[in-house]
Amino acid sequence: MKSILIAATAASAIATATASDAPQDYTHLIPLTTSAKQGVLQLRLPKDVYLHARSPLLDDVRVFDAGGAPQPFALRTPAPSTRTSRHDLPLAIFPLMGTATSASQLDLDVSTAADGRLLSVKVRPDGNGDKTVQPRLTGLVLDLGQDGASKPVSALRFTLPSGQREYSAQVWLETSADMKHWDTVGAAELNWLVNQEAQTLANDRLEFDARNFRYARLSWRSGTPVQFAAITAEQLVRTDVPPPGEQLLVQAAAGRQAQDLVYAVPPAIAPDQAGLQFSEPNIVLSGTLGSYRELPARQATQGPAWRFDPLISSTFYRITQGGQVRSSGDIDVPPVHATQWVLRTTAPTTARPALRLDWQPATLVFLASGNGPYTLAVGREHALPAVRELNQVAPGFSDAELQKLEQVGAGPATQQQGSGASEASAAVEAASAARQRLIVLWGVLLLGVGVLAFMVWRLLRPSRS
After folding, report:
1. In whole angstroms, what is the distance from residue 227 CA to residue 163 CA?
2. Comparing C-alpha atoms, which of 262, 249, 252, 277 is closest to residue 359?
3. Element (DSSP H or E) covering residue 169
4. Could you give the residue range(s) of every CATH 2.60.120.260 domain in the chain?
5. pLDDT at residue number 352
6. Cis peptide bond N-terminal to 373, omega within 30
7. What is the rounded CA–CA span in Å between residue 139 and residue 95?
């Protein structure tokens, strides 16, 4: 039995020796540039990776250091970034006229519409007050409106009444959602100063932490109250911006049926949008995008050896009218990997539009643990997957930390000299290695049979004696 184990170990050693994973085993190399010598880095996969990859899941992607040692890496879908902009919203202003020293001490009579919009705000007269005291401006009530309350506000900007150029006061701001419960938000010193050259220096903003509210109340702690000509709310508008994508334009070829147009697409590209680019000035083309699927042999005997799998139907067009061009935009498509995309039109056509594909490239996160410079390799048949889980490459990193990782630059892809010959020789070597493994396996089996026969002969010989 020891002989069998030794032979099996030898066969495993031969199979392991034939496996190679070095930069020269890949058809294309892409140089990487970074200022960091080591650590966790990230790279937005360039378009060349998707054009030259042989695996739909990017199994033939590697990162090597200067000595050819592979570096651990993970692939992740890039998250959209958030863009913040400011939107100006004019507010409805309602003056509060009363005898109290503060707007918060006034008894208000509020009239609202069904949607919460303020119609009027009046101060109820105080029956015990001094009738000789004339009401004066004590505060302002502001209404953002129903739509304005849905977005956070971070500041108020004030405009002086017409004809007034200088002013100074301290104002306080309170906010409310129902005109019953008020929260103090903040205060600001407002100043408008004019020098001898008639130049105005203004501090006309009241800033605070962004918050959502419907109503606001403004009161004065110092200075003379004034009814501003306008008060504008600065709203924060946050918009998700998708990361930049890649695009590929593929020319059409004849399909398996008269109304089919076929487009050869690299297997690693799984587009999320597709469209047609016409050369004709006026054309309307209705059809279905899909792919061919080869059927198993037992199904092919009963009919065609393939079938058309539809994905999405649409009407594509390009119309020139009055000097303006109208064209159909890209449509969302299911992200599938197919080496042949098919456009099946509703009727045969002589048009040969190009297929436009858009996809979102993955972000490669790798641990630079070797010696730079680093190289990205791609393009190898039947490569084993080397991608790891993200927590095995950057353990303990939060999403915010991953977003801030240093971005590695990528140069142009270079096809290795004799890459076609090396692929052919690799295929020959693989076939030769397979034959060697088969011969070794048969040898192990024959050796095992011989050992068993010898053991039986040794057991039967004493009995014959």
Report:
1. 13
2. 249
3. strand 167-176
4. 84-126+134-240
5. 94
6. yes
7. 6
Number of continuous H segments (helices) and E segments (strands) in the chain: 6, 30
User: Poorest-confidence range of 98-112, 139-153, 214-228, 372-386?
Assistant: 98-112
CB 365 within 8 A of CB 402: yes
d(CA 287, CA 262): 13
Rg (CA), the chain: 38
Token duo for residue 162: 């017409």
64-87 pLDDT tens trace = 999 999 999 999 998 887 888 888
Tokens encoding 369: 């643990």
Record the tokens describing residue 295, joined without a space.
């059927």
CATH number of 246-293+305-359: 2.60.120
- Tokens of residue 302, six digits: 């009963």
Question: Is the separation of the CB atoms in 148 and 233 below 8 Å?
Answer: yes
Residue 234, token pair as written in the block: 């600065």
102: Cβ contacts below 8 Å, ≥ 6 apart: 138, 139, 219
Q: Cα dist. 378→29, 186, 203, 419 in Å?
A: 7, 58, 59, 12
Q: Is the Cβ–Cβ distance between 343 and 17 less than 8 Å?
A: no
* CA angle, 267 then 408 then 43, to 5°: 30
Length of the chain: 465
Q: How far is CA 96 from the centre of its chain?
A: 50
d(CA 148, CA 216): 12
CA–CA distance, 53 with 339 (Å, rounded to integer)? 12
The CATH-assigned architecture of domain 84-126+134-240 is Sandwich (2.60)
Extract the tokens encoding 222: 């110092």
Environment class of 465 (CB within 10 Å of its CB; exposed 0-12, middle 13-18, buried 19+): exposed
Q: Which long-range contacts (CB under 8 A, 24 or more apart) does 179-182 make?
A: 179/108, 179/110, 179/112, 179/215, 182/104, 182/217
- The separation between CA 42 and the C-alpha centre of its own chain, rounded to angstroms, equals 15
